[in-house]
Amino acid sequence: MTLLKKWEAVLSEGMYHAFSPSGDALVFQSLWREPMMETFEVRFADGREPLIVRNESPMTPLAWASDDELVYRVWG
pLDDT tier at 42 (50, 70, 90 boundaries)? Predict the structure, then answer.
């Protein structure tokens, strides 16, 4: 199964941000936002409940360090 086929239903819902290195999870940008804060969901291919991630510094985007570690990407 290709990565895009695995996530076809989720990708049709809106904008995704970043796949994990294995492709088993992705950061999905939620449609609702709080002032000065971006909100993302981490969705899993195995059907686990999504995790909500709030990025209080929208100028510092989230990135995957490994399959188990989601970090802020630091510029500079």
Answer: confident
